[in-house]
Structure formats: C-alpha cells, structure tokens
Amino acid sequence: MVEIIIQYILILLLVIGLGYLVYLLKDNEVNIVDDYYGLNYVILGSLSEGESTAENVKQIIRTISQTVEYVETNYSCEDNKFKEEKAIKMAKNATNLLCFQGNIDDESIKYLVRLAVALSTSTNNTID
Description:
- The relative contact order is 0.13.
- This protein has 2 domains: 1-30; 31-119.
- By secondary structure, the protein is mostly helical.
- The chain starts with a helix and ends in a 9-residue tail after the last helix.
- The radius of gyration is 21 Å and the shape is elongated.
- It is 65% helix and 0% strand.
- Helix 3 (54-74) runs antiparallel to helix 4 (80-96).
- The protein is built from 5 helices and no strands.
- The mean pLDDT is 81.
C-alpha cells in the first residue's frame, strides 16, 4: 500500500515539474516549434539579431540541403570524406550569396551539412 502511494506521489511530482518547465519556457518567450532544434541560437549564432529570423533560417537550411543533394547526386561514387568537404565548400559559397551581414562560420556550416546528410537518402553504401 505504501509503495502505491509513493508511486502516485512521484507521478504527481513529475507532472508538476513538467508543468513548471513549460511555465518557464513560456515566461522566457521561447518558442520551441520555431527554434529548429536549437539552430537559431546555437549553430547560427554568428548571424546578427535581425537576420536570425525563422524565414532566414529556413532559407539557409534549404540552401544547404539543396547543396548536399547536388553533391550526393553528382558525386555518388566518391568517398564520403570527399563529398563532405565538397558540400561544405559549396554550402559556404551558397550561403555567401544570400547576402547576410554576418557570415555563417565554418563549424556551423559543417554541422548543418552533416545534419542534411543524415536526413537525406544514402547513395554510397560504404561506411567510414
């Protein structure tokens, strides 16, 4: 009987904790849906405050995804390391063409390329 009461108390504390977490997120005006897994604040932190809008982030992610798709299609027989380096170079050039005031750093582009590769279909079956 005591074990059942303890379980109910723990469930109640869990629900209260999750409610408090939601309250804190709403209080700080953090919109989880528009954050794209933290890309706005962590990976794309090199952009200015006005440039890190949801529309610009979508545009950057689409550009890098199209670059990765192009590299996967045209260099499908190449080594994965070569394809990653080629995609990073092309993505850097493509994001520079978007004419943002701040440049996206190389590490951010590398992480976005790797994320796009992970979400795309594989063309080379060998794993490094």
